[in-house]
Design goal:
Helix content is 43%, strand content 18%. It is an alpha+beta fold. The protein folds into three domains: 235 residues, HUPs (Rossmann fold, 3-Layer(aba) Sandwich); 91 residues, 2-Layer Sandwich (Uridine Diphospho-n-acetylenolpyruvylglucosamine Reductase, domain 3), CATH 3.30.465.60; 181 residues, no CATH class. The strands form four sheets. It has a six-stranded mixed beta sheet, with helices on both faces. The protein has a five-stranded antiparallel beta sheet with strand order 11-14-15-16-17. The protein has a four-stranded antiparallel beta sheet with strand order 7-10-9-8. Helix 11 crosses helix 13. The radius of gyration is 32 Å and the shape is elongated. The termini are far apart. It binds adenosine-5'-triphosphate. The site of adenosine-5'-triphosphate has 17 residues, from helix 4 and strand 2.
């Protein structure tokens, strides 16, 4: 058979997929289905506050369910029972021979009802249902505004199929809660709402209503004849289950509702546990999340699993597989000192590596780990002693960029006053070599400019921290500071350099997330990063480039 014959056959099949009723305006006195209207109006009442002031769109495939929902909205709006008339959005996936024809059909039907309607074109990567859905939401979200609401015509039969599909895939309490009637969804910085007011109504009720109104709906042949799991469940399994229990659809939908409640409870607990176990919970960037293993292990095992599930899935749209959670749990339970194991998770938005260092568990994004391998910009600043004393100049913030690419940027921020106060602290608390003391005194007596050198920690460079009795170098030093392996090439030393002798006085050791004051004897080298931050206004931060742009524009 030639390909043109094939196309003809497809066209014939797809054209006949439109229910053979003429497109006509729905009469003002046409019947309204009470059960469908009640479900919609009950949902409107339930979400009244959230709906207030928002623009409402209706995702209309032209299929029986979404066309029926559009028709009901129109009838109720005209009768004054519905406070809004949604605008229709139809997405043309261009996947079937008749896709253009269907788009035109929806537009014509909307025009006959004088309902606003927008036809959007989607580019689908792949041929499965999931790819089409993803492309559809993408174009619809791009079209609507922040906080707008998108009405969907999913019903109880769709819900039952969804729950059964997820059960077959081994989903947990979240997946088995099915689709939610009201779901805030974010894409990038934008947030939209998916609203499904018909999750409690049966497909048969919609069919009866659509026939009563003589709605010319499109019957997409792939819905029932497709070889995907959903079509099989709809065609073969659900009718069989109904022979055992006529209420099976409602019952599964009710189970989903009960599980949604259970999921809300579990998530609240996991969010609290996540706060409790987080290391510095207020400043955990999504590219490096850190959890305290000792605190994790103080909880019962089922809460540890729920917490890991929650902790891993933060910032992501899809949850991790159970196997990963088991593997991560096993990693936290290891008692040997080998911390080389890495677990990779290919999540929906990012790839992550999960690692352990001592009693901390890390979830690190690959892009961040790659960024950590980039070289550090070594820099030298000349500070005039004048700027240490002049009231205006000593408060002027210096911003030093140590490493940056198109994803992340590491910056130091301090003022000349920070340096002055650190030097004063050194003079007062340390037994400095005499020549360096003289240099600092010279600076203070306004006689000398000086250099501030910001350079990567040298392999052999020995430094005295508060955590050791003598100066240390290399691995010893990083171990003393409890510095995970992947951060060890991201250490810089800030030193004051004498312009007379070129001698260096190391003031601070800085990592992307921490900083330590250095010294010559143990007693004085104990200033922690929090004190440096609050008392000395010294900050080391890694931000995403989009955060930097946002902060710059504020
Ligand atoms: N091409 C599309 N354009 C706009 N919205 C769509 C489109 N396809 C699906 N939707 C929306 O998503 C919901 C669920 O999608 P699903 O694939 O189950 O719909 P369908 O069976 O093709 O159509 P319907 O639910 O209208 O009978 C629809 O009820 C509709 O609100």
């Amino acid at each position: 058979m030639s390909s043109s014959n094939n196309d003809d056959n497809n066209n014939a099949k797809n054209s006949s997929a439109i229910r053979q009723y003429p497109i006509q305006s729905i009469a003002a006195d046409s019947l309204i289905d009470q059960s469908l209207a009640e479900a919609l109006l009950a949902s409107v009442a339930h979400y009244r506050d959230q709906l207030h002031g928002r623009r409402i769109w209706l995702a209309c495939s032209g299929g029986r369910d979404s066309l029926a929902l559009a028709a009901l909205c129109l009838q109720l709006y005209r009768r004054g029972d519905l406070p809004f008339l949604p605008q229709l959005l139809h997405v043309n996936h261009g996947l079937q021979a008749d896709s253009d024809h269907w788009a035109q059909h929806v537009a014509q039907w909307a025009q006959a009802q004088q309902m606003p309607c927008h036809i959007l074109r989607a580019t689908v990567n792949g041929h499965d249902e999931q790819a089409a859905r993803q492309a559809r939401y993408q174009v619809m979200f791009a079209h609507i505004n922040q906080d707008d609401v998108l009405l969907l015509a999913h019903h109880a039969d769709d819900q039952a199929e969804t729950v059964l599909m997820r059960l077959m895939q081994g989903a947990g309490v979240n997946g088995l809660s099915g689709m939610q009637p009201w779901r805030e969804q974010s894409q990038g910085a934008r947030c939209h709402v998916l609203w499904r007011p018909w999750l409690t109504v049966r497909r048969t009720a919609i069919t009866t209503y659509a026939e009563q109104l003589k709605l010319p709906y499109i019957n997409d042949p792939t819905n029932d004849d497709g070889d995907n799991v959903r079509s099989g469940l709809r065609r073969d399994i659900m009718p069989l289950l109904a022979t055992y229990n006529a209420n099976v659809v409602h019952n599964i939908a009710r189970s989903a509702q009960l599980l949604a409640d259970a999921h809300a409870t579990v998530s609240t607990q996991a969010a609290q546990d996540s706060q409790y176990t987080a290391i510095s919970p207020l400043c955990q960037p999504p590219f490096q999340r850190v959890l305290d293993i000792d605190k994790l292990q103080s909880m019962p095992l089922h809460r540890q699993r729920q917490l890991l599930h929650y902790w891993l899935a933060q910032d992501e749209s899809l949850p991790p597989a159970k196997q990963l959670i088991d593997d991560v749990l096993a990693l936290t339970q290891r008692t040997d000192a080998n911390h080389q194991t890495t677990l990779d998770w290919y999540a929906s938005k990012q790839i992550y590596t999960i690692r352990r260092y001592r009693q901390h568990l890390y979830r690190l994004s690959h892009s961040f780990l790659q960024w950590l391998t980039l070289p550090i910009n070594e820099q030298t600043l000349t500070l005039s002693s004048h700027c240490l004393f002049d009231n205006a100049s000593k408060k002027k913030t210096e911003t030093i960029t140590l490493r940056s690419n198109d994803s992340f940027c590491w910056q130091l921020q301090f003022t000349p006053d920070t340096i002055k106060r650190l030097l004063t602290y050194l003079l007062e608390h340390q037994s400095l070599p005499p020549n360096l003391s003289v240099d600092i005194i010279n600076i203070f007596e306004n006689e000398a400019d000086f250099l501030l050198k910001i350079a990567p920690l040298g392999r052999q460079q020995r430094l005295q921290t508060a955590f050791a009795t003598r100066p240390q170098a290399g691995k010893k030093l990083t171990q003393t500071l409890a510095m995970p392996v992947w951060l060890r090439d991201s250490l810089v030393v800030i030193s004051v350099v004498s312009t007379h002798t070129n001698e260096e006085l190391p003031l601070l050791l800085v990592s992307p997330f921490d900083s330590w004051m250095l010294g010559f004897d143990k007693s004085a080298a104990g200033i922690t990063s929090t004190i440096l931050d609050s008392d000395f206004s010294f900050r080391t931060t890694v931000r995403t480039i989009s955060q930097c742009h946002q902060d710059d524009s504020n």
